[in-house]
């Protein structure tokens, strides 16, 4: 008997709508912070290295805190954890807005604030996404994760567009006040949400043991390891360009609004790609995951070398479309390959794999400082495509993963 649409729609699950809307606003504010920080640093310094360093600070917590976030997700109330991180960032955003508005914000203040927002991202990625699974269960997971990817890409679009418009209209300082206000709305949406029952370890164990178990699980979770390898490649070679977009826009003499639009281009493409996956529900998840990444790499080249604004914008939208395929299947693949008891730690490992991003950002900044932005971006895209091809040849199971017609229980061990 085929499942009805209501049985597979994540919005049919209790509290999912409120959690999803809160997550959408969180993504909007996070990408707004990313845009405002890189735009401000570029205006103050004009240095590709220092602009990339702003991105490094935002994503650095993923490198060292991913598995720790997974431990928190598995050991503590996930809903409460998300509420706390939102409550902490609200006053910090207002404080930064006051300092920037008074021209009393040195670079280290911007970098520190972005680092703290990055810590919030680690918390959100591990705790809120695990919370989503607790809310929707197996039957609605595909739709829920596709909608999660859609909220991320929508946040990219709205965050950059709102950021660019706010800079033009009221200035950078006041834009940070808007960030604080939006975070407050995201927190209010969670007030009526109740924590669902979630699997927890039966006996207390130390956080260090949890961390070690997370790494040890990779020895037996061959599928998870292969997925994480692709994630490392994507973040080191592809997504490292995010902070440098204002520098590319400088070459095109773009206004603040057009800089924001260009920064939103990736999100526009990702939103379209994620919506396509949500509608089609492809059976061959692994092929979509890897193939989308190849598409994304290919369109980075015209983005890097184009001299006309519309051409560059179109290229980054097309690259984002491929990234949307990648993003819409990434978390679903990890969560369906990992046993239930390790799911939070598997998401923590995913965060650490995404932690390759700040390393890639730093490397790209150094390349751009020496070779120029266009050459550095092109070199990254070509090398990334080659490394991805080699990885999929070495780990072919990653592009062979499919939706099982009669799935085995999610908590059964993955075959080695």
Describe the structure.
This protein has 416 residues and is mainly α. It has one domain: Up-down Bundle (Growth Hormone, Chain: A). Helix content is 79%, strand content 0%. It contains 17 helices and no strands. It has helices at 5-8, 16-45, 48-75, 78-101, 107-136, 141-169, 172-189, 207-220, 222-238, 245-251, 256-280, 285-305, 309-337, 343-354, 356-371, 373-394, 397-400. Helix 3 (48-75) crosses helix 8 and helix 9 runs antiparallel to helix 13. It is globular and about 50 Å long. Mean pLDDT is 80; it is low at 1-5 and 404-416.
Alpha carbon gyration radius: 20 Å
Please name the CATH architecture: Up-down Bundle
The secondary-structure element order is HHHHHHHHHHHHHHHHH
The tally of beta strands, per DSSP, is 0
Fraction of helical residues: over 70%
Which class do the helix and strand fractions yield? mainly alpha
CATH homology group = MFS general substrate transporter like domains
- List the total number of helices: 17
Indicate the low-confidence ranges by residue numbers: 1-5, 404-416
CATH class descriptor name: Mainly Alpha
């Amino acid at each position: 008997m085929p499942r009805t649409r209501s049985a597979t729609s994540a919005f049919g699950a209790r509290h999912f709508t409120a959690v999803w809307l809160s997550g959408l606003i969180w993504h909007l504010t996070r990408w707004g912070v990313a845009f405002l920080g890189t735009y401000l640093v570029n205006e103050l310094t004009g240095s590709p290295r220092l602009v990339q360093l702003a991105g490094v600070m935002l994503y650095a917590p993923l490198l060292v805190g991913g598995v720790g976030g997974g431990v928190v997700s598995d050991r503590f109330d996930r809903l409460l954890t998300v509420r706390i991180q939102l409550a902490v960032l609200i006053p910090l955003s207002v404080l930064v807005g006051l300092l920037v508005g008074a021209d009393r914000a040195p670079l280290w203040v911007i970098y520190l604030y972005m680092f703290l927002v990055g810590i919030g991202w680690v918390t959100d990625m591990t705790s809120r996404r695990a919370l989503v699974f607790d809310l929707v269960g197996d039957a609605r997971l595909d739709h829920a994760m596709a909608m999660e990817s859609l909220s991320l890409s929508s946040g990219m679009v709205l965050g950059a567009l709102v950021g660019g418009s706010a800079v033009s209209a009221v200035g950078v300082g006041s834009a940070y006040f808007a960030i604080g206000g939006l975070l407050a709305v995201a927190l209010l949406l969670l007030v009526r949400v109740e924590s669902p029952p979630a699997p927890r370890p039966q006996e207390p164990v130390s956080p260090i043991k949890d961390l070690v178990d997370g790494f040890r699980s990779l020895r037996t979770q061959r599928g998870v390891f292969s997925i994480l390898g692709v994630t490392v490649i994507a973040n080191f070679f592809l997504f490292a360009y995010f902070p440098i977009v204002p520098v590319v826009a400088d070459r095109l003499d773009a206004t603040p609004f057009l800089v924001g639009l260009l920064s939103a281009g990736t999100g526009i493409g990702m939103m379209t790609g994620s919506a396509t996956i949500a509608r089609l529900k492809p059976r061959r998840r692994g092929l979509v995951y890897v193939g989308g990444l190849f598409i994304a790499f290919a369109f980075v080249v015209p983005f890097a070398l184009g001299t006309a604004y519309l051409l560059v914008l179109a290229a980054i939208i097309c690259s984002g479309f491929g990234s949307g395929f990648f993003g819409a299947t990434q978390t679903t693949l990890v969560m369906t390959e990992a046993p239930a008891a390790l799911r939070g730690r598997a998401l923590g490992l995913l965060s650490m794999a995404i932690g390759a991003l700040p390393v890639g950002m730093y490397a790209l900044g150094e390349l751009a400082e020496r070779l120029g932005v266009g050459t550095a971006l092109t070199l990254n895209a070509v090398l990334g495509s080659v490394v991805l091809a080699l990885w999929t040849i070495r780990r072919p199971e990653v592009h062979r993963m499919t939706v099982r017609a009669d799935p085995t229980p999610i908590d059964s061990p993955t075959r080695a």
